[in-house]
Design goal:
alpha+beta; Kinesin; globular; binds adenosine-5'-diphosphate; binds magnesium ion
Length: 365
Protein backbone atom coordinates (compact mmCIF):
# COMPACT_ATOMS: atom_id res chain seq x y z
CA UNK A 1 0.00 0.00 0.00
CA UNK A 2 1.41 3.39 -1.00
CA UNK A 3 1.84 6.39 1.24
CA UNK A 4 -1.24 8.59 0.80
CA UNK A 5 -0.30 12.18 -0.07
CA UNK A 6 -2.41 15.33 0.20
CA UNK A 7 -1.58 18.97 -0.59
CA UNK A 8 -3.29 21.96 0.96
CA UNK A 9 -3.02 25.62 -0.01
CA UNK A 10 -3.86 28.37 2.49
CA UNK A 11 -5.13 31.96 2.10
CA UNK A 12 -2.66 34.83 1.61
CA UNK A 13 -1.28 36.08 4.90
CA UNK A 14 -0.93 39.78 5.71
CA UNK A 15 2.71 39.79 4.61
CA UNK A 16 1.81 38.38 1.21
CA UNK A 17 -1.08 40.81 0.82
CA UNK A 18 1.33 43.64 1.71
CA UNK A 19 3.75 42.44 -0.98
CA UNK A 20 0.88 42.35 -3.46
CA UNK A 21 1.63 38.66 -4.04
CA UNK A 22 0.19 36.78 -6.99
CA UNK A 23 -1.53 33.42 -6.71
CA UNK A 24 0.68 30.72 -8.20
CA UNK A 25 -1.25 27.57 -7.26
CA UNK A 26 -4.20 26.01 -9.02
CA UNK A 27 -6.02 22.80 -8.16
CA UNK A 28 -8.52 20.68 -10.00
CA UNK A 29 -9.49 17.24 -8.76
CA UNK A 30 -6.28 15.45 -7.84
CA UNK A 31 -4.16 17.84 -9.92
CA UNK A 32 -2.13 20.59 -8.26
CA UNK A 33 -0.40 23.03 -10.59
CA UNK A 34 2.39 25.41 -9.78
CA UNK A 35 1.92 28.33 -12.14
CA UNK A 36 4.71 30.17 -13.87
CA UNK A 37 3.21 33.64 -14.06
CA UNK A 38 5.49 34.71 -16.92
CA UNK A 39 5.15 31.66 -19.10
CA UNK A 40 2.12 29.33 -18.77
CA UNK A 41 4.04 26.73 -20.81
CA UNK A 42 6.26 26.33 -17.77
CA UNK A 43 3.39 25.51 -15.40
CA UNK A 44 4.15 22.35 -13.46
CA UNK A 45 1.45 19.74 -12.83
CA UNK A 46 1.51 17.31 -9.91
CA UNK A 47 -0.98 14.60 -9.01
CA UNK A 48 -1.71 13.58 -5.44
CA UNK A 49 -4.36 11.53 -3.68
CA UNK A 50 -6.01 14.70 -2.39
CA UNK A 51 -5.67 18.38 -3.11
CA UNK A 52 -7.31 20.73 -0.65
CA UNK A 53 -8.15 24.22 -1.77
CA UNK A 54 -8.29 26.40 1.33
CA UNK A 55 -7.14 29.58 -0.36
CA UNK A 56 -10.50 31.30 -0.81
CA UNK A 57 -14.21 30.56 -0.90
CA UNK A 58 -14.93 30.97 2.81
CA UNK A 59 -16.17 33.50 5.34
CA UNK A 60 -15.29 33.75 9.00
CA UNK A 61 -18.22 33.64 11.41
CA UNK A 62 -18.28 35.55 14.72
CA UNK A 63 -16.20 32.82 16.39
CA UNK A 64 -13.59 33.00 13.66
CA UNK A 65 -14.65 29.64 12.23
CA UNK A 66 -14.12 29.38 8.48
CA UNK A 67 -17.46 28.63 6.78
CA UNK A 68 -17.34 27.49 3.13
CA UNK A 69 -19.20 29.71 0.68
CA UNK A 70 -17.91 27.82 -2.34
CA UNK A 71 -17.86 24.06 -3.03
CA UNK A 72 -14.20 24.35 -3.77
CA UNK A 73 -13.18 25.40 -0.26
CA UNK A 74 -11.90 22.57 1.95
CA UNK A 75 -12.50 23.39 5.61
CA UNK A 76 -11.00 21.54 8.59
CA UNK A 77 -13.88 19.03 8.61
CA UNK A 78 -13.42 18.21 4.94
CA UNK A 79 -9.71 17.61 5.47
CA UNK A 80 -10.44 15.47 8.52
CA UNK A 81 -13.10 13.46 6.70
CA UNK A 82 -10.74 12.57 3.88
CA UNK A 83 -7.43 12.29 5.67
CA UNK A 84 -8.10 11.88 9.39
CA UNK A 85 -10.97 9.46 9.38
CA UNK A 86 -9.06 6.73 7.59
CA UNK A 87 -6.47 6.82 10.37
CA UNK A 88 -9.12 5.84 12.91
CA UNK A 89 -10.62 3.23 10.58
CA UNK A 90 -7.18 1.63 10.30
CA UNK A 91 -6.44 1.95 14.02
CA UNK A 92 -9.66 0.07 14.78
CA UNK A 93 -8.51 -2.76 12.53
CA UNK A 94 -5.20 -2.90 14.43
CA UNK A 95 -2.83 -1.18 11.99
CA UNK A 96 -0.11 1.24 12.99
CA UNK A 97 -0.72 4.63 11.38
CA UNK A 98 1.26 7.76 10.77
CA UNK A 99 0.37 11.22 9.57
CA UNK A 100 3.09 13.74 8.69
CA UNK A 101 2.64 17.43 8.03
CA UNK A 102 5.38 18.79 5.78
CA UNK A 103 6.05 22.25 4.39
CA UNK A 104 7.87 25.54 4.92
CA UNK A 105 7.25 27.57 8.07
CA UNK A 106 3.97 29.45 7.85
CA UNK A 107 2.52 27.20 5.14
CA UNK A 108 -0.16 25.71 7.39
CA UNK A 109 1.20 22.51 8.94
CA UNK A 110 0.03 23.27 12.47
CA UNK A 111 -3.25 24.71 11.18
CA UNK A 112 -3.99 21.36 9.53
CA UNK A 113 -2.69 19.19 12.38
CA UNK A 114 -3.81 21.01 15.50
CA UNK A 115 -5.69 24.05 14.25
CA UNK A 116 -6.21 27.46 15.79
CA UNK A 117 -9.19 28.61 17.89
CA UNK A 118 -12.51 27.46 16.50
CA UNK A 119 -10.80 25.87 13.50
CA UNK A 120 -9.78 22.64 15.18
CA UNK A 121 -7.42 20.48 13.17
CA UNK A 122 -7.10 16.78 12.43
CA UNK A 123 -5.59 15.86 15.83
CA UNK A 124 -8.32 17.25 18.13
CA UNK A 125 -11.11 16.08 15.81
CA UNK A 126 -9.59 12.59 15.69
CA UNK A 127 -9.20 12.50 19.48
CA UNK A 128 -12.83 13.50 19.91
CA UNK A 129 -13.90 10.78 17.50
CA UNK A 130 -11.83 8.11 19.19
CA UNK A 131 -13.94 8.46 22.33
CA UNK A 132 -17.20 8.75 20.40
CA UNK A 133 -16.38 5.47 18.68
CA UNK A 134 -15.40 3.84 21.96
CA UNK A 135 -18.78 4.83 23.43
CA UNK A 136 -20.48 2.92 20.63
CA UNK A 137 -18.80 -0.34 21.66
CA UNK A 138 -21.50 -2.64 23.03
CA UNK A 139 -19.38 -5.79 23.21
CA UNK A 140 -18.90 -6.53 26.96
CA UNK A 141 -15.91 -8.76 26.11
CA UNK A 142 -14.06 -6.03 24.24
CA UNK A 143 -11.95 -3.57 26.17
CA UNK A 144 -10.54 -0.50 24.41
CA UNK A 145 -7.77 1.56 25.99
CA UNK A 146 -6.13 4.78 24.85
CA UNK A 147 -2.88 6.33 26.01
CA UNK A 148 -0.90 9.23 24.69
CA UNK A 149 2.66 10.52 24.62
CA UNK A 150 4.24 13.59 23.14
CA UNK A 151 7.80 14.07 21.95
CA UNK A 152 9.85 16.90 20.56
CA UNK A 153 12.98 16.48 18.49
CA UNK A 154 15.09 19.58 18.67
CA UNK A 155 18.79 19.72 17.83
CA UNK A 156 18.81 15.90 17.47
CA UNK A 157 17.72 15.64 21.10
CA UNK A 158 14.50 13.83 21.95
CA UNK A 159 12.52 15.37 24.80
CA UNK A 160 9.36 14.08 26.43
CA UNK A 161 6.98 17.02 26.37
CA UNK A 162 4.84 15.44 29.07
CA UNK A 163 7.67 15.41 31.60
CA UNK A 164 8.20 18.81 33.30
CA UNK A 165 11.35 20.55 32.06
CA UNK A 166 13.07 20.30 35.46
CA UNK A 167 12.61 16.51 35.61
CA UNK A 168 13.93 15.74 32.15
CA UNK A 169 17.21 13.85 31.77
CA UNK A 170 19.98 16.08 30.42
CA UNK A 171 20.73 15.23 26.84
CA UNK A 172 17.19 13.95 26.35
CA UNK A 173 15.82 10.45 25.93
CA UNK A 174 17.78 7.73 24.18
CA UNK A 175 16.51 5.82 21.20
CA UNK A 176 17.20 2.10 21.53
CA UNK A 177 16.61 -0.85 19.30
CA UNK A 178 14.64 -3.94 20.25
CA UNK A 179 15.36 -7.16 18.34
CA UNK A 180 11.85 -7.69 17.06
CA UNK A 181 10.01 -4.45 17.87
CA UNK A 182 12.54 -2.13 16.28
CA UNK A 183 13.47 1.36 17.50
CA UNK A 184 11.83 2.82 20.60
CA UNK A 185 12.30 5.84 22.82
CA UNK A 186 13.57 4.62 26.17
CA UNK A 187 11.74 6.17 29.12
CA UNK A 188 8.99 7.89 27.12
CA UNK A 189 6.03 8.54 29.43
CA UNK A 190 2.66 7.05 28.47
CA UNK A 191 -0.50 8.61 29.81
CA UNK A 192 -3.74 6.65 29.90
CA UNK A 193 -6.69 8.81 28.84
CA UNK A 194 -10.38 8.11 29.25
CA UNK A 195 -12.02 11.09 27.62
CA UNK A 196 -11.44 13.84 25.13
CA UNK A 197 -11.01 16.28 28.02
CA UNK A 198 -8.17 14.16 29.42
CA UNK A 199 -6.33 14.11 26.14
CA UNK A 200 -6.91 17.82 25.49
CA UNK A 201 -5.44 18.72 28.90
CA UNK A 202 -2.39 16.56 28.29
CA UNK A 203 -1.75 18.02 24.88
CA UNK A 204 -2.06 21.56 26.23
CA UNK A 205 0.60 20.74 28.81
CA UNK A 206 2.83 19.30 26.11
CA UNK A 207 2.38 22.29 23.86
CA UNK A 208 3.32 24.66 26.68
CA UNK A 209 6.45 22.62 27.33
CA UNK A 210 7.75 23.00 23.81
CA UNK A 211 11.09 24.59 23.15
CA UNK A 212 10.50 28.06 21.91
CA UNK A 213 13.19 29.16 19.52
CA UNK A 214 12.37 32.24 17.58
CA UNK A 215 13.52 32.76 14.03
CA UNK A 216 12.83 35.74 11.86
CA UNK A 217 10.12 33.86 10.01
CA UNK A 218 8.16 32.51 12.95
CA UNK A 219 8.33 33.14 16.66
CA UNK A 220 7.10 29.66 17.52
CA UNK A 221 9.11 26.46 17.55
CA UNK A 222 9.28 26.07 13.80
CA UNK A 223 12.69 24.40 14.08
CA UNK A 224 11.47 21.46 16.14
CA UNK A 225 9.58 18.32 15.18
CA UNK A 226 6.61 17.50 17.39
CA UNK A 227 5.26 13.94 17.56
CA UNK A 228 2.00 12.99 19.25
CA UNK A 229 1.76 9.26 19.83
CA UNK A 230 -1.59 7.67 20.54
CA UNK A 231 -1.64 4.00 21.47
CA UNK A 232 -4.96 2.27 20.98
CA UNK A 233 -5.22 -1.19 22.49
CA UNK A 234 -8.18 -3.52 22.06
CA UNK A 235 -8.43 -6.65 24.16
CA UNK A 236 -11.13 -9.14 23.37
CA UNK A 237 -12.02 -12.20 25.39
CA UNK A 238 -13.11 -15.15 23.32
CA UNK A 239 -13.72 -18.24 25.46
CA UNK A 240 -10.67 -18.64 27.66
CA UNK A 241 -8.34 -16.77 25.36
CA UNK A 242 -7.59 -13.08 25.07
CA UNK A 243 -6.76 -11.40 21.78
CA UNK A 244 -4.92 -8.15 21.81
CA UNK A 245 -4.77 -5.69 18.94
CA UNK A 246 -2.46 -2.71 19.20
CA UNK A 247 -2.35 0.31 16.97
CA UNK A 248 0.23 3.04 17.40
CA UNK A 249 -0.76 6.32 15.79
CA UNK A 250 2.06 8.82 15.13
CA UNK A 251 0.95 12.37 14.39
CA UNK A 252 3.94 14.41 13.28
CA UNK A 253 4.19 18.16 12.84
CA UNK A 254 7.57 18.49 11.14
CA UNK A 255 9.96 21.42 11.43
CA UNK A 256 9.77 23.98 8.64
CA UNK A 257 11.30 22.64 5.43
CA UNK A 258 12.65 26.01 4.21
CA UNK A 259 16.27 26.48 3.44
CA UNK A 260 18.07 27.85 6.45
CA UNK A 261 19.30 31.04 4.76
CA UNK A 262 15.79 32.36 4.37
CA UNK A 263 15.13 32.25 8.11
CA UNK A 264 18.25 34.36 8.68
CA UNK A 265 20.06 31.86 10.90
CA UNK A 266 23.07 33.48 12.51
CA UNK A 267 26.29 31.85 13.68
CA UNK A 268 25.06 30.84 17.10
CA UNK A 269 22.20 29.09 15.44
CA UNK A 270 24.45 27.28 13.02
CA UNK A 271 24.74 24.10 15.05
CA UNK A 272 21.01 24.09 15.55
CA UNK A 273 20.37 24.58 11.87
CA UNK A 274 22.75 21.80 10.89
CA UNK A 275 21.23 19.38 13.35
CA UNK A 276 17.67 20.19 12.43
CA UNK A 277 18.61 19.71 8.85
CA UNK A 278 19.96 16.32 9.83
CA UNK A 279 16.54 14.95 10.82
CA UNK A 280 14.73 16.59 7.94
CA UNK A 281 17.48 15.86 5.42
CA UNK A 282 17.59 12.25 6.53
CA UNK A 283 13.82 12.02 6.18
CA UNK A 284 14.31 13.26 2.63
CA UNK A 285 17.09 10.72 2.01
CA UNK A 286 14.98 7.88 3.39
CA UNK A 287 12.04 8.91 1.21
CA UNK A 288 14.33 9.18 -1.82
CA UNK A 289 15.92 5.78 -1.15
CA UNK A 290 12.54 4.11 -0.71
CA UNK A 291 11.18 5.76 -3.84
CA UNK A 292 14.25 4.61 -5.81
CA UNK A 293 13.79 1.10 -4.51
CA UNK A 294 10.17 1.06 -5.69
CA UNK A 295 11.28 2.28 -9.11
CA UNK A 296 13.80 -0.56 -9.35
CA UNK A 297 16.85 1.70 -8.84
CA UNK A 298 19.65 0.98 -6.33
CA UNK A 299 17.81 -2.04 -5.02
CA UNK A 300 20.48 -3.05 -2.53
CA UNK A 301 21.14 0.30 -0.93
CA UNK A 302 20.72 0.52 2.82
CA UNK A 303 17.87 2.84 3.83
CA UNK A 304 19.55 5.41 6.12
CA UNK A 305 17.04 5.25 8.99
CA UNK A 306 19.87 5.21 11.57
CA UNK A 307 21.24 8.59 10.58
CA UNK A 308 18.75 10.71 12.54
CA UNK A 309 16.39 10.60 15.53
CA UNK A 310 13.31 11.35 13.47
CA UNK A 311 13.86 8.54 10.99
CA UNK A 312 14.65 6.04 13.73
CA UNK A 313 11.47 6.84 15.64
CA UNK A 314 9.38 6.80 12.46
CA UNK A 315 11.15 3.86 10.86
CA UNK A 316 7.94 1.83 10.73
CA UNK A 317 5.98 4.66 9.15
CA UNK A 318 8.41 4.73 6.21
CA UNK A 319 8.52 1.59 4.14
CA UNK A 320 7.51 -0.55 7.09
CA UNK A 321 4.50 -1.76 9.01
CA UNK A 322 2.25 1.30 8.93
CA UNK A 323 -0.53 3.01 7.04
CA UNK A 324 1.09 6.35 6.33
CA UNK A 325 -0.26 9.67 5.12
CA UNK A 326 1.48 12.95 4.39
CA UNK A 327 -0.18 16.32 4.21
CA UNK A 328 1.94 18.93 2.46
CA UNK A 329 1.12 22.54 3.23
CA UNK A 330 1.96 25.23 0.67
CA UNK A 331 1.78 28.99 0.42
CA UNK A 332 -0.34 30.40 -2.44
CA UNK A 333 2.15 33.15 -3.18
CA UNK A 334 4.61 33.50 -6.09
CA UNK A 335 6.97 34.96 -3.50
CA UNK A 336 7.38 31.40 -2.15
CA UNK A 337 7.62 29.73 -5.57
CA UNK A 338 10.93 27.92 -4.93
CA UNK A 339 9.93 26.55 -1.53
CA UNK A 340 6.56 25.42 -2.89
CA UNK A 341 8.25 23.67 -5.82
CA UNK A 342 10.55 21.88 -3.42
CA UNK A 343 7.58 20.84 -1.23
CA UNK A 344 5.66 19.50 -4.23
CA UNK A 345 8.72 17.55 -5.41
CA UNK A 346 9.13 16.09 -1.95
CA UNK A 347 5.47 15.07 -1.95
CA UNK A 348 5.96 13.49 -5.36
CA UNK A 349 8.73 11.27 -3.97
CA UNK A 350 6.73 10.38 -0.86
CA UNK A 351 3.83 9.02 -2.88
CA UNK A 352 6.10 6.37 -4.43
CA UNK A 353 6.82 4.74 -1.07
CA UNK A 354 5.14 1.41 -0.46
CA UNK A 355 4.48 0.12 3.04
CA UNK A 356 3.56 -3.35 4.18
CA UNK A 357 1.06 -2.80 6.95
CA UNK A 358 -0.14 -5.81 8.90
CA UNK A 359 -2.70 -6.08 11.70
CA UNK A 360 -0.88 -6.17 15.04
CA UNK A 361 -2.71 -8.93 16.84
CA UNK A 362 -1.51 -11.41 19.41
CA UNK A 363 -3.22 -14.04 21.50
CA UNK A 364 -2.60 -14.68 25.18
CA UNK A 365 -4.07 -17.28 27.52
P1 LIG B 1 3.23 26.18 10.03
O1 LIG B 1 2.82 25.29 11.16
O2 LIG B 1 3.39 25.42 8.73
O3 LIG B 1 4.45 26.99 10.34
P2 LIG B 1 0.76 27.54 10.57
O4 LIG B 1 -0.15 26.37 10.51
O5 LIG B 1 1.10 28.04 11.92
O6 LIG B 1 2.09 27.25 9.74
O7 LIG B 1 0.10 28.66 9.67
C1 LIG B 1 0.62 29.98 9.59
C2 LIG B 1 -0.54 30.98 9.61
O8 LIG B 1 -1.40 30.77 8.49
C3 LIG B 1 -1.41 30.85 10.84
O9 LIG B 1 -1.78 32.13 11.27
C4 LIG B 1 -2.62 30.08 10.36
O10 LIG B 1 -3.77 30.43 11.07
C5 LIG B 1 -2.72 30.50 8.90
N1 LIG B 1 -3.25 29.37 8.09
C6 LIG B 1 -2.58 28.28 7.74
N2 LIG B 1 -3.34 27.44 7.00
C7 LIG B 1 -4.55 28.01 6.91
C8 LIG B 1 -5.77 27.65 6.29
N3 LIG B 1 -5.91 26.50 5.62
N4 LIG B 1 -6.82 28.51 6.40
C9 LIG B 1 -6.68 29.67 7.09
N5 LIG B 1 -5.56 30.07 7.69
C10 LIG B 1 -4.50 29.27 7.61
MG1 LIG C 1 3.74 25.06 12.99
Amino acid sequence: MSVVVAVRVRPFNTREIGLNSQLCIDMDGTRTSLLDLNDPKKNKDFFFDYSFWSHDGFELNEEGLAIPVSDRYADQRAVYNQVGQQILDNAWLGYHCCLFAYGQTGAGKSYSMVGYGANKGIVPIACQEIFERIKLNDNPHLEQEVSCSMLEIYNETVQDLLIPVTKRPTGGLKIRQHQSLGFYVDGMSKHPVESYNDIEKIMDTGTQNRTVASTQMNACSSRAHTIIIIQFKQTEEKGDRKYEKLSIINLVDLAGSEKVAKTGATDKRLKEATNINLSLTTLGKVIQALADKEMGKNKNQVIPYRESCLTKILCNALGGNSKTLMICAVSPSNDNYEETLSTLRYADQAKKIKNKATVNESATD
